Amino acid sequence: MMAIKHWPESERPRERLLKHGAATLSDAELLAIFLRVGVKGASAVDLARSLMGRFGSLNRLFAASAPEFSDIPGMGNAKYAQLQAVLELARRALREELASGDALTSPRIVRDYLRLTLSSLPHEVFMVLLLDAQNRLIAAVELFRGTLTQTSVHPREVVKLALSHNAAGAILAHNHPSGVAEPSRADEALTQALKQALALVDVKLLDHFIVAGSTGPLSFVERGLL
Questions:
Q1: Within 10 Å of residue 77's Cβ, how many Cβ atoms?
Q2: Is the predicted pLDDT of residue 208 greater than 50, yes or no?
Q3: Portion of the chain with pLDDT greater than 90, in percent
Q4: In what order do the strands lie in the sheet with 204-211?
Q5: How far apart are CA 130 and CA 104, in angstroms?
Q6: Who's near 110: CB < 8 A, 6+ residues apart?
Q7: Smallest Cα–Cα separation from 171: which of 125, 197, 199, 204?
Q8: What tens digit of pLDDT does each residue of 75-131 get?
């Protein structure tokens, strides 16, 4: 098996990225740059393709546990730690953008942050993004885990959280591990209950997103549900 360093320069992932930009590379090629080296009999690109074949998608790869990841020949705890560090850096960079600009004029950043934070989780999580009067992010708080109902997500806890951060607005978000982003009647009822509770303390509910699989987060506002 020919090592990548022996490939024609125009075919090497790193050289192509530097010349044409990261967006021109496939998922496997980007992973190959992250891996840097392959193993005996397999280049970094071959190894990256094995990872994609094993997990089926980047989201599932990112959600893999350390034992699942290390089960792939050539992988281990060091690579797993590096991957998790890269993901956390991406999340923090997006949080910084949300904290410095108007979240309502940067819907892509909000969606990217929520997808990177929630889409790969195996359990359901309810988050609240708290915003100031200029719609800049104050805090992103994971408030509940488990099936979302009005008995598990208490409006008073959401209101208390908003007041403790002196928030002027809020964006709700939760994930559907099933991969189906369609809101349930319970989701709709909960959203209306939280909207009314927050309005009592002059906090505006700006949107509620459902994150599921690799598709873009579903917006309640865009669906006309809020």
A1: 11
A2: yes
A3: 26
A4: 137-145, 125-131, 169-175, 204-211, 218-219
A5: 13
A6: 98, 103, 129, 171, 209
A7: 204
A8: 888 888 888 898 888 888 888 888 877 777 777 888 888 988 888 787 888 999 999
